[in-house]
Amino acid sequence: MAEEMTFAPRSEILSLEEIELVAKAFATLGVKKIRLTGGEPLVRHNIMSLVENIGALDNLTELTMTTNGSQLTKYAQQLSDHGVKRINISIDSLQSQRFKTITRTGDLTQVLAGIDAACSAGFQRIKLNAVILKGRNDDEIMDLVNFAISKNIDISFIEEMPLGLIDEHDRALSFCSSDEIRAYISSKHSLTASEITTAGPSQYYTLEGSDTRIGFISPHSHNFCHLCNRVRVTVEGRLLLCLGNEHSVDLRAVLRAHPGEIEPLTQAIIDAMVLKPERHYFDLDNEPQIVRFMNTTGG
């Protein structure tokens, strides 16, 4: 079944105040980096107040965001002013009709204008994220690379994660590995493995004659679980210990049983860490074990 856009009832999602308390609890426990992601975080009402408050947390050294870029003409400068240092923009195609088909409603012109706004806003780094599938957009690999070079920004190619039930393509047949993409780019540009890391799963390469970095995120072909120290809190307050597993803890229940209290929340987070699995296991030939989609995972 193809994915449909649905929205959770307001009562089931965390308020901005609850999200801020969760962020404060993690910062209190020593977390130095927080990323706001989606869905699309910038469509949330009064999102700038949350960004400003999280950006001002003691002990936090980096606040970042992943966005679809549709709201950046409005918010890019405010995000930079409120302490967002790096921003990731998801874009799988530079062809207007294909982009609309992939995103279902996306306006490529609006997103490209948002990328330009981000480039003018003073972020330390801007990175594009692209999921490449054979028969869908694998003919645009070099277009995306050259676009990133023209904007002097980075780009990461991400292997598709088998989350959610779909019928729009066969995951095993459409899968495009990081090795395949890197080999193709290497036939056009000189790539050099980089020791640069951003405390994330990307393996970066530098391009000769350019400041653009090419990243590869490879949950299938090059499992990075042994390096992972990340967790995610969904908009419903579910603490996911791994995107590729269903191990989770209900922080919303803790928040609402102890309104405004940080101690029960920090203890729940500490207790949850023992559930973090050793690794994920993806099999493209079988039905996915995780039925939630990435855009409903959020965090």
From TrEMBL:
<protein>
    <submittedName>
        <fullName>Molybdenum cofactor biosynthesis enzyme</fullName>
    </submittedName>
</protein>
<dbReference type="GO" id="GO:0061798">
    <property type="term" value="F:GTP 3',8'-cyclase activity"/>
</dbReference>
<keyword id="KW-0949">S-adenosyl-L-methionine</keyword>
<dbReference type="InterPro" id="IPR013785">
    <property type="entry name" value="Aldolase_TIM"/>
</dbReference>
<dbReference type="GO" id="GO:0006777">
    <property type="term" value="P:Mo-molybdopterin cofactor biosynthetic process"/>
</dbReference>
<dbReference type="Pfam" id="PF06463">
    <property type="entry name" value="Mob_synth_C"/>
</dbReference>
<dbReference type="GO" id="GO:0005525">
    <property type="term" value="F:GTP binding"/>
</dbReference>
<dbReference type="GO" id="GO:0061799">
    <property type="term" value="F:cyclic pyranopterin monophosphate synthase activity"/>
</dbReference>
<keyword id="KW-0547">Nucleotide-binding</keyword>
<dbReference type="InterPro" id="IPR058240">
    <property type="entry name" value="rSAM_sf"/>
</dbReference>
<keyword id="KW-0456">Lyase</keyword>
<dbReference type="InterPro" id="IPR013483">
    <property type="entry name" value="MoaA"/>
</dbReference>
<keyword id="KW-0479">Metal-binding</keyword>
<keyword id="KW-0408">Iron</keyword>
<keyword id="KW-0411">Iron-sulfur</keyword>
<dbReference type="InterPro" id="IPR007197">
    <property type="entry name" value="rSAM"/>
</dbReference>
<dbReference type="InterPro" id="IPR006638">
    <property type="entry name" value="Elp3/MiaA/NifB-like_rSAM"/>
</dbReference>
<keyword id="KW-0342">GTP-binding</keyword>
<dbReference type="InterPro" id="IPR010505">
    <property type="entry name" value="MoaA_twitch"/>
</dbReference>
<dbReference type="GO" id="GO:0046872">
    <property type="term" value="F:metal ion binding"/>
</dbReference>
<dbReference type="GO" id="GO:0051539">
    <property type="term" value="F:4 iron, 4 sulfur cluster binding"/>
</dbReference>
<dbReference type="Pfam" id="PF04055">
    <property type="entry name" value="Radical_SAM"/>
</dbReference>
<keyword id="KW-0501">Molybdenum cofactor biosynthesis</keyword>
<dbReference type="InterPro" id="IPR050105">
    <property type="entry name" value="MoCo_biosynth_MoaA/MoaC"/>
</dbReference>
<feature type="domain" description="Radical SAM core">
    <location>
        <begin position="1"/>
        <end position="188"/>
    </location>
</feature>
